[in-house]
Amino acid sequence: MDRTVKSYEGDLRHLRDLIARMGGLAERQVADSAYALVRRDVELAGEVVSRDAPIDALEREVDAFCVRLLALRQPMAGDLRFIIAALKISQDIERIGDYARNVAKRAIIISGQPFLGGVNGFQWMAQMVQRNLKDSIDALLREDAELAERVWAADAPVDDIYTGIFREMLTHMMEDPRNITAATHMMFIAKNFERIGDHATNIAETAHYAINGAILPDERPKADISADLPSTQATA
Amino acid sequence: MDRTVKSYEGDLRHLRDLIARMGGLAERQVADSAYALVRRDVELAGEVVSRDAPIDALEREVDAFCVRLLALRQPMAGDLRFIIAALKISQDIERIGDYARNVAKRAIIISGQPFLGGVNGFQWMAQMVQRNLKDSIDALLREDAELAERVWAADAPVDDIYTGIFREMLTHMMEDPRNITAATHMMFIAKNFERIGDHATNIAETAHYAINGAILPDERPKADISADLPSTQATA
Fold first, then answer.
1. Residue B216 has what pLDDT?
2. Alpha carbon B32 to chain centroid distance?
């Protein structure tokens, strides 16, 4: 095999490895932040906070490597789309890392207080978005357009759980003002998981484009639920 | 002048125009969402919601055009960095549009209730992040690395205002449970403006890289303030 071609393929493989590694780290951050939250594990939460920097560093590595690849290899068609997708997806993964870190920070703050409401909602949400994140990146790496479409359409249940948590926290706030601070943090935590789900959807959309060059329809089957809640709903 | 060169420059100019247009639309969305919020202008808020789609469409146009440019022109060095930057920045602007739409949606929900706290905080925050957004895109388009650095370092006041609003809303919640729903939306609105500021910082960072190829330091002078608040602070 031609040596240049071989090393070009090696380059593409390296880029795939970088994305896989970034995705793996982010998945773990999402899982651990949720675990730290529901188990009141301050130590683990602290680890999650400190483990965000390597994800940021990987994003920069992906960026620099993509620029190198584009400059030296002048890739075409599918390879070009994959590189563009890697650039965009690394940005999404970096944001996911930020949200997980934010969950961990808030988990530390409220660790001294009793857990408001059921832990199930948070665990489900975290598991779903972690799964969507994993699947969206798998879809990219395995060039599985069908899986990408599935993830892209799978965001609605996450939004439903988020809405449930949002309402539950409002109830806790109204029942006892001493719950207000913790419930507020819990709402923002739920919002963080919802945003992580959003970014997983973005990744799936980008992966789909990378695989077959076709862009998914404008309207995703998702809505910003809490902003769509009528204001009377919670105070009723 | 060589025709190919001329049309290559035309392509780059077109890409700059697309980014300028996207940035301009997003700026207006940020300004109008804040205006709709503080003036209780439901009609304007509705317009902001409906004006998000053109920004999303422009993001897709930027993506497609960048892929075309990379495939057909095989740009090098500064041009290549600019194209990569455009890809990343369009993603940031698209998110900013989402946040502005979310502000507008929440503004509609709480429009029937009296404004909690002072409007000044929100107006300042919105103006600051709108300014940072404008400056970060100007920095890219004018290749002004110094301006990019200035925006990159300018995010701290936004965070301070956000923290102030967050505390104020907690106080309103504790004073009267009937404020809880509206105060919660106000907190999320403030958080949206803070995130818009974050993305403006990202844009500045990317612009800086596009201009001189150098990456800004790992740690930005910004922190997620509400997650850093001790839990006792608000309940004290």
1. 58
2. 13
